[in-house]
Amino acid sequence: MQRELQPGNRIHRYVIEEVLGSGGFGVVYLAQHASLGYRVVIKEYLPNQIAHRVDGVVKPFMTDLADIYETALQQFKHECETLLTLEHDNIVYVYDCFYDSGTAYMVMHQEIGNTLWESYVQQVEIHNQPFSWQQISAVLPGVLSGLDYLHQQNLVHRDVKASNVFLRAGPVIHPILIDFGAVKVAGGYVSQQAQNTQSYAALEQEYNVFPIGPWTDIHALGVMIIELLTGHRPIKAFDRYKQSSPDGSDPILMLLEQVSHYSGNTIANALFYATQLQPEHRYQNISEFKAALPL
């Protein structure tokens, strides 16, 4: 049984050309508009743990999973419909959303380039060293601008990481925030259907200890920067919490010492406050974080 649509298959107004990627929550295709000829990227919701394709229609594996599937499908629809309302140079552009064959599809502009994570891995493989602050600081203004715009719309990305920052090919570095599968209105609490990457997720994303907000994305961005500067990913927030002590010790401090040594105290200090375990101790908005960084 084939999970993905195949080249030549038609869905809505588009003809599938190739599968670009497949993961736990869905499939991404390169497709062409059937009559106008332009290429797009289409994201199909197809969670492989609870659903499959039967005679061309996406269905949950069993009736007991129907409610779970429908709830998650509605979240995907919400992601797509939210992105349709956004217009910013550093946020992926979504043309359309449509619903067909038991599931939902998001139609996005085809970008040429690679992710920040792919660029990082390539550098490590070739030069055997992580990014410098100079390299990261060339990308950060666009990422900060995109997140600030998102937060101004009262939305939180909730899954900021290097693989969700796309670098458009060209003479000028142009980062674009992608994969809004976890996007949520700010001020709410975590839900059971929340999607995030645990290593970057803030404490409030694992437990209802504090509402999510801009400070949640700032934590993930801080973790991402620490990883790119040191070559080491901090342990997840809850494990840091368990290993921390009342005197202020925190496992992340060892990595911040490396940041301080190679990139300077100003950057290490900014990342210290960006990644605080307690949300109220972090920067509360992108403007505060940006002001603390030497950009």
UniProtKB/TrEMBL annotation:
Signal peptide: none
MF terms in GO: ATP binding; protein serine/threonine kinase activity
Residues at which ATP binds: 43
Pfam families to which the protein is assigned, alphabetical: Pkinase
Listed name of the protein: Serine/threonine protein kinase, bacterial
Naturally occurring in which organism (per UniProt): Aliiglaciecola lipolytica E3
Domain of life: Bacteria
Domain named Protein kinase: residues: 14-295
Keywords from the UniProt entry: ATP-binding, Kinase, Nucleotide-binding, Serine/threonine-protein kinase, Transferase
Enzyme Commission identifier(s): 2.7.11.1
